[in-house]
Amino acid sequence: MSGETISQMVGRLLDGRATARANVEAALSRLTEHGSYNSLISTCEQRALQRADQIDQSLRKEPGRAGRLAGVPFVAKDNFLSFGAPTTAASKMLRNFQAPYQATVIERLEAEGAICVAKSNLDAFAHGSSTENSDFGPTLNPHDKSRVPGGSSGGSAAAVALGSVPFALGTDTGGSVRLPASFCGVVGYKPTYGLLSRFGVVAMASSTDVVGTLSRSAGDAALLVDVMSGRDPHDATTLDRPSDLRYKGGLRPLNVGLIEEFMGPEVDPAVKAAIENTCQKLARMGHRVNKVSLASLPLALAVYYIVVPAEISSNLARYDGIRYGYSAPRAASLEATYGLSRDQGFNAENKRRILIGTYVLSSGYIEAYYQKAQTVRTKLINDFKAAFKRFDFLIGPVAPATAFKLGQNTKDPLKMYLTDVMTVGASMAGLPAVSLPAGSDPAGLPIGAQLIGPQLSDGKLLQLAQDMEGVN
C-alpha cells in the first residue's frame, strides 16, 4: 500500500478492497513507525478518522460515487492553516495557534475526499534550506539519517519518501519544494505563480510564495494541481485555470535548453552525470537538447536575498505579541511587549532575515539595494522570456550537490543560502518547475533534475515529466 499512487488508492476504495478509515489508520501507523525522522510536528488523528468514517458512510449509501481523492491521506506543511491540529509554522511564535479557518487549497482537497492526517516539520516560517531551523528540531533525510532532507518543506518530502502518505503539501518561495524533493528522491512541483491560492498559508515573501506538491509521481502532481488550481476571491494574485492544465495530447518533439550556468565546475560530478543522462533520455524520446545561457542567472541568488528578506520584514511585522502568537509574559510595558515577544518568539534565522529586509528598505539604502534588485529581477524575467522563444523547456540540476550533513552549514549562512542557487531563478520569474528523481550519487543519495517552463505551461510541463517517468 505504501507505494501506491493516488489513483491506485482511490481505485481500491471504489471497488471495495479498502476503506478510508483503513487508509488513514495505515498512514498514521507508518508516520508513527517513522517517528525517529522527525518529519512531523503534530497529527490530526481524531479529525482524520471522523472524516474517513464520513467518506465510508457516503460510499455505502452511493457505491462507486466519490471524489477524485476519496480516502487519500496526506500531510500538510505546518504553515498551512488547517483544523484538527495547531498551525505553528515550526516556530515558538505560533506554538499553540489554532487556525480559525482552513487554507483554500486544503478546502479544495477535502472537497474531493482527501484527508489531512498530520502537519509536517519545516524551517521556522519557511526560512531555510535544510529543515534545521525548526523550533521543533531538525528532520532527518530518509536515505541517511546523518544528512538533511532539504528545506524548507523537508518534513513533507521525508513523509512521502518514507512511504507514509502518497502526497504532501509544501510551499516554494525560492526552492523549498524542489530542493527537498531532490534530496529525498520524490517529485516536487512548483506551479506558475498565482495558479494555486495562497489564502490561509503563513506568508513568507508574497511575490514569490507558491503552494507546491511532493508526490511519488508526476501524474499525481498533475491530478493535485487540477484539484487545487483556479481563482480564489480571497487571493487577488490567483489566475484563471489554463485550458490545457490537464494536458493529454502527445507532445511534439520539443526543444529543451540545458542551462550552461548550472553545469559549471562547482557542480558535483555525479550531479552533472545524472543531468547528462536525463538529457540523453530526452533525446531518446525524440526531443532536441541544446545548451542555453541566461546572462543574468548568476545574479538571481543575490536578488533573491534582497527582495525576499524585504518582504519577510513586512510580513512578519504582524507578530507583535498583541493580537495572536507568542507574547512575552514578563513585559512591563507596550514597548517591552513588542521587543521581548519578537526577541523570544523568533529564532536566529528569522531575525537575520528581518534585519536584512529592514535594512534594504530603510531610508538611504532602498535605492541602493531594493530598487536595484528589482531592476535585475526584471532583467532576469526578460532573459527567461528570450530563452523560451528558442526553447520549450529548460533543464538543469536542482542543487549543485546531494544532501549535506546535519550541522554542516548551520554556522555559515552564506554557504546555506548558496544551496538555493539553482532554484531561485524560476521563483523570481514566477515560472513553473518540477524536480524529478534522476538517479543517485555513489553514496546512494538521490539527485533531482529540474525542468522549468514558461508561465502557465504547467500542463505540458507535467505531461513531459510523466512521459520521462516511463522511459529508462
CATH topology (level 3) name of the domain at 6-228: Amidase signature (AS) enzymes
Question: What is the name of the CATH class of the domain at 6-228?
Answer: Alpha Beta
Radius of gyration: 21 Å
- Spatial ordering of strands, largest sheet: 1-3-2-4-6-5-10-11-9-7-8
The CATH superfamily of the domain at 6-228 is known as: Amidase signature (AS) domain
Total beta strand runs: 11
The main β sheet shows up as: 11 strands, mixed
Order of helices and strands: HHEHEHEHEHEEHEHEHHHHEHHEEH
Distance between the termini: 24 Å
User: Which CATH architecture of the domain at 6-228 would you pick?
Assistant: Alpha-Beta Complex
Helix count, per DSSP?
Answer: 15
* Structural class by helix and strand composition: alpha/beta
- Bulk shape: globular
Low-confidence stretches: none
Mean pLDDT: 96
Share of residues in helices: 25-40%
β-strand amount: 5-15%
Question: What report would you give on this structure?
Answer:
The two termini are 24 Å apart. The protein is built from 15 helices and eleven strands. By secondary structure, it is α/β, with parallel strands linked by helices. The model has no long low-confidence stretch (mean pLDDT 96). The protein has a domain at 6-228: Amidase signature (AS) enzymes (Alpha-Beta Complex), CATH 3.90.1300. It has helices at 6-14, 20-33, 45-61, 104-111, 154-161, 178-184, 218-228, 269-284, 300-315, 334-345, 348-360, 366-390, 413-417, 424-429, 458-469, and strands at residues 40-43, 73-77, 115-120, 167-172, 187-190, 210-215, 255-259, 288-292, 393-397, 433-440, 446-452. β7, α8 and β8 form a beta-alpha-beta unit. α7 (218-228) runs antiparallel to α15 (458-469) and α9 packs across α12 (366-390). It has an eleven-stranded mixed sheet, with helices on both faces. The longest helix has 25 residues, at 366-390.
